[in-house]
Structure formats: structure tokens, C-alpha cells
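Two proteins, back to back. First:
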Amino acid sequence: MTGAVLLALLPVVLLTALGFALRRRRFLAESFWPQAERLGYFVLLPSLFFHGLATARVEAVPVGALALTLILSTLAVAALVLAVRPLLRVDGPAFTSVFQGSVRFNNYVGVTLAAGLFGQKGIALAAICNAAIVPTVNILCVLVFARHGAARLTARGIVRQLATNPLIVSSLAGMAVQLLGWGLPPGLEPALRTLGAASLPIGLLCVGAALEFGGARAWLRPVASASAMKFLAMPAATLAVASLLGLNGPALTTALLFQVLPTASSAYILARQLGGDAPLMAGITAMQTVLALAVMPLVLIGLSAWMPIG
């Protein structure tokens, strides 16, 4: 398991580093990066979520217990982050980055790990994780941006953001296709799969391009706070809820994997779109990705020593 975790995380680190190098070397025009971010947010990531949920095989998967475990643990950690907000000593936009760093996750790494560990069943489990967490996290983040972001939203603006958020809409649409058993047309399915696959390199290159290490010292507190929530509080809450609901075996392993994933590149794109602290968000994302190389194997090994999760 440790080797699989490291192999899945290493490409993420390398692509982020490549984006950083390309931007610093001015290999591409400055105008490229905002357009790439927009493409990822509105087209590539929605394609990934929609395709993954619409085509997943969910037979013999404890859908209810797995989804409830993920939703309740995410809500618990979100409430904890909001409760400790006065202790963080950061402004509103910076707090949105800490919040995203505490609850958002890297879908690409999660799917890769689940598939590597459990094959086709792992893909189905990963799809359920995405279906449960993606809408939950995006709704929470939009609400936090509305309260603390630089671009304050009215009640009507919040509803509009939720109703038109491409990540939420694509997730709900994929779930609807799955529940109705419609399937995807032969020509459309590979096109969506290809677009979704492109979201990983584009998103991580954008994260790397946005890195500014000049303010790294000022990031210490928010990075440490978000990482503590992500790598300590989130798996602990997940395990507690899973124990109450009787979730075990591969489903529990997959839930724990998803809840200790580093923050996704989509967090940076959302910060740019909704008035968050985008440079800080990129810093948290990059630092968590590097930290995850050590933390994720340790968390899983520690939890498996206490409770069988495989």
C-alpha cells in the first residue's frame, strides 16, 4: 500500500514543479495561465466528474454507509475549522484557502489509489466517494467564499453560484445518469473520458505556475493549520463515523484514502474565481502534496495497526 501511495503522488509533485519552472522560465505567455485555469474549471474538471459518476459500476458496494461516512466526517471537520477561525489570525480571503485546504481533496490521486488497490471495485468505490464529497465540499466552499471571500455574495448570488457551479452540476448530472441507467453514447463517452484525463496535467501545471515562495514564511500558520485538519482531524473523524456505521473492508480503506488526500488543484482555480487568496491556496496545495508523500502512508499504516481496513 505504501508503494502505491508514493507512486500515485510522485507524478503530482513532478507536474506541479514543471508548472513552476515553465512560469519562471517564461516558456509560455502570461496570458496562457488564466485561460488554462478557466478551461480546467469550466470544461475539464466537470468532464472528469460527470464521466466518472455516469460510468461507475456500483454493484455490491455499501453506497449508503460509505457516502454517509464521508459526508458526516467532512461536515464535522468543516465545523471545526469554522470554530477555530479566530485563532488562525488571517484575513477573510486567506481563511477561505485554509478552509479549502482542510476539506478539499485531489480526485485524481484518490481514483488512482483505489483502482490500484482494489481494481474495478476500487473504481466503483472511488466514484461513490466523489459523488458524496464533491457536492458537499463545493457547497461548503461556496458558502465560505460568500462570507469570507473578497467578492462577497448576496443570498441570490450564493444560490446562483451553487446552481451554476460546474463541479456541482456535473456531479449531480453524472449521478442522475447513473441512477437512471441511461449510459453514455458511444461517441460521447470517450470524448468525455479524454477531457477528464486532461484536467490532471492542466490543473497541476496551473498550481505550479501560481507558486510564490517569497511569502512562504507568512504561510507557515495557515499551511500548518490546513494540513493538521486534513491529515489528522479528517481521518480521525472518518474513522469515528465509520465505526458507528459499521463500515469496514475495502470501503473503509477507500474512505480513509480519500479523506487524507492532499488538496486538489481545483481549490486554486476556485480561489481565483471567487475572491480567495489564490497564491496562498497554491502554496497550501503544493505543500500538502509534498507532505502527503510521508503523511499518507503513515496514517494508513497507523490506522491499519489499530483496525483492519484492507
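And the second protein:
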Amino acid sequence: MATARSRPTPAGYRCAECGWRTAKWVGRCPECESWGTVQEAEPTAAGRVQAATVAPSRRARPITDVPTDPVARRPTGEGELDRVLGGGIVPGSVILLSGEPGVGKSTLLLAVASRVAAKGARVLYVSAEESLGQVRMRAERTGSLSPTLFLSAETDLAVVLGQIDEVQPNLVIVDSVQTVSTAEATGIAGGPGQVREVAASLTRVAKERNIPVLLVGHVTKDGQIAGPRVLEHLVDVVCHFEGDRGTALRFVRAVKNRFGPTDEVGCFEMSGEGIVGVPDPSGLFLSRAVGTEPGTCVTLALEGRRAIPVEVQALVVPTSAPNPRLVVNGVDSARVAMLMAVLSRHAHVAPSKPSDIYVSTVGGVKIVEPAVDLAIALALASAITERPIRGDIAVCGEISLAGEIRPAVQASRRESEAKRLGFGTLLGPDLAWLRDAVIEAVTS
């Protein structure tokens, strides 16, 4: 009887840039979005691949017998950034900071480098996008000069590693990971293969030498970190730097943190002299018109673990246009339209004539949580009835289509912050119906 030979098993197709596999050929890799990189993989003989068994050098231990060592952290000198990181930078960790172009990533990290160097540590700042003169000019403007802060303008990974060997720094900052390339990987700088290899090499150096590394990451037009998804898996901490160019406020929030929480938010303010932390941002989103002008109402919004008072303003103007406009800034337009319908149905508060409706937050802050519903509804009711909201109240609560006010998450934290700021009454789930809220809040 003839012995059946093992036939080669087709391995499908594989992307040469990021390694993504598929059973059918496609022209564009859906993982790294590169064209023409999907090629047929080499077939493997069925039954020939078998993992070898190796005796472990260290036996597995019960989790209850594993000792817990406290994580040593080094403060950066920026209190708001330390808040997000959980108290400071862990030696040997790799931190990725991403954000829109021009939001202030380089300015923030240059300030961090200066403050760390001012304590006597050696810091290596690798700028792969700017010249040494440009970085020096920014450092002079922001007061970030220090003799132990070393600058290097290199785009070759091998040269960057050589600089680390020569300087022997206590902190390395690479701006940015998408502009550094290596001859060990194929593709252009910023491609998935290059970004993966550069990040892996820097991570390996950080772990072997116990040096923290800060990486700047670009983002796509959708706000996602550019490059392969494996970049976020390689690093220990992923932080997003958010902010509107029209405002001076910036937020840093951690979306991944192996050494701390991910529900902390750091507040910064951008100025001509640089970027500074804002430990108490309570006055940034309030105007002097609270309690005196119709159409204004204060709510307590949560940014991470921090409750921030935000003023919501509404304006209702009669119009002769066939299609009245709804213009919003900082809140969801669909949510505002729904609240207008709830006001009309359950509170019997609606414009007597076709009107344009404008809703905005003070300071350009964006609020997406449902707890702002009650503030929007009361601001609209105040603008329609032309009666101001009492200035000593702040409101929180989600409004359902039935007109019911539901409690906001972490109400106790919001209430304590409201009392600290002098707001005597925090309306919310204690009021059963929207009609009662309007009668209670709007002065006669």
C-alpha cells in the first residue's frame, strides 16, 4: 500500500509591512492601509510543525506566594502630568504621548525634560522633526534651558542608540517615533514596519537599562495613533493630549497605564511662555453672567476623577426663515434637539414663534456625558421664558424621553465640588419631573 504524502498546506496571504494574514488576496491591507503589500505566504507542510518541550528554569508559583514590590516613581516636575501617570514616571517604562499637530506635545515634553534635568538628572531629547536651533529657541522662550539637558537631531535609530550609549541619560525623549527609521526594517519612515521596529528597539533598551523613554506619536485624521496597532501594545502607558487650537486649555488623559489608573485627567494652559499645569480649573468655564442673565446654567462635568464646573449658555432668537437653525458648540446637537422635544412635551416650555436655537459651553470645553442634560434643559427653559436661573445652584442629571430625571454617576463627588465652590443647591435625581425642575430653578 502506498504511503500518503503530506501535502503542503496553503498559508494564505501575508502583509509585508505589518504581518497581517488573510485567506484571500486583497490589494490594500486593512490593518496598516498599505497598497500592494499583501503577498502570498510560503506554504507549510501539514503535520511538520511541532513545538518543542523545554524544561522550565523556574517553576510556576501560586499567585498568593508572589511578593508585591512597590513601584518606584520619579516625579516629572509637572504635577498634572504626574497625576495622569499615577505619581510619576516608572524607571524602565515606555510612555507614548499622542495628539493633534500643534496641540503642544513638544512644548510639554521639553518642559518635562527641563524640570527633570534641573534636579541633576541627565536627559536626552531626540528631535527627529526639528533642528537643534529650533529646539533651543523654544527652550529659551519657555525657560527650559538646563546644562544637563542634551539635544540631538537624528532620524537614524542606530545613531539614536549610539547617543544613548554616549550620554548615559536618566530619561530619553524621542520626538517623534514616526520620523525615526532603521535599516533593519523595510519601508519608509513612518510605515508600519518601521514604526514597529523602532518602538520595539527603544522598548528593549528601556527595559534592559532601566531608562524611562517618552515617545511622541502622530495621529491620523480620525484621531487614532498613526502606525500599527502593535505600537500601543508595546508601550506601557498611552496618553492622549487633547485641546482646541482656539482655546488655551489642554487635557492629558491616559487610555492605557500598566502602573496606575486610567481615569485621571491633567489640565494645562497654553500661553506665550509655554505650557503650565492648572491644578484648579474651576474658574476657566464660568462667566460673570451666572444668575443675572437668562439662558445660563451651571453643571458639574466629570473629567476623569475631577469634577469641573461648566457653564452652559442658550440663546433663542425668533426667525422668519422657513427652516430654523440649531447651532451647538461643546455639546451634542442631537441631544439638544431631543431635550427641546422633552421640554415642549413634559414641561410645556417651547418658543411661541419659529426660532433659531444656539447652545454653547463657556471656555470651549466639550461635554459628552448625559449628566449635562438637565443643565441644557434649564438653560433653554430660561432663555425661552427670559427668566434667569438662580446663581447659587448647579445641576446634574440625565433626562429621559419620558421627562424623568435620572441620577448622574459619581453624584457625591460632584456635590462635594459644588459645595466647595459655593453652590448651595445641586439639583438632580431628587426632582422627579422636569416640570418641577423648571419651577424650582427659574425665578419668578
